[in-house]
């Protein structure tokens, strides 16, 4: 979207003639303002536009305009951003406009495989006790969580009995493991774990993505194994993204300390750090983590920051259970930034990206075609 179109959009907003999508774009951009933003223009009409946006959003913070344009220049930030045509934003409390062939978001869905191979579909199962296995009670709560409760000493139980919980595309689930550790499992993921942990360690196997809040136990380290790495902790909060279709395994630490191991590579993470293990070159590096974007899925959001279109669409495909195909002219490498609730229909993501004028989507059943 060029500067002329951006100015026309602001004029429409002031006049009250915006479509719902256009108004959403203007207002949500205003909600992303930074007090450190550099001025783009000093035209008086932008002062008026900013005040109109601020008033309609119902905020009461005092505006400051004039020479100190480091404060709340709504139109300036909007104009600058739209000139690049490669960003989209949506404010959480604003409802998105739906259109034909819209697709609902994912929900709490999973399949539990017991030690004897029996599979239990957890989607529509009533709450209450499901089964007793290896002196452990397995219960589904009214909130849709799977909870394991030990009924006997570990010595009386079968430590070789394993369960596996698997979420499909368009599903996620929360599990409370036998030691009290809580796990949030993202879409298209699986977790294999013993019904009763051994006396020396607590080891689970992950495919996909999960967030862990590990119960502290100095005597028994908690270990998360993926195909290419292993993470060892005593008690901490962390997230692992280990999808096979991603170029790297990302481990993000929120609390405590973790040790990441991958063959001959090792790293110790402190809170706020992230390890990145590249799957092709087998390199391990540690950097400061963007906790907002890494934890967005667990908090019910999509948060994209300088993220390429293909990466965004992989997340969209997992959560909405859709197939994504690309037309020959699709801008696969275009970088976007944005924020949208995962509770919204798929149109909330697609429609706002389309407003940049750089990408368009065709929805046919559960197939999304990406076009220029």
TrEMBL record:
An example Gene Ontology molecular-function term: sigma factor antagonist activity
Residue ranges annotated for the Protein FecR C-terminal domain, each copy included: 301-370
InterPro entries membership: FecR, FecR_C, Ferrdict_sens_TM
Entry keyword set: Membrane, Transmembrane, Transmembrane helix
The protein's name: FecR protein
Domain FecR protein: 164-259
Residues annotated as transmembrane: 69-90
PANTHER family tied to this protein: PERIPLASMIC SIGNAL SENSOR AND SIGMA FACTOR ACTIVATOR FECR-RELATED, PROTEIN FECR
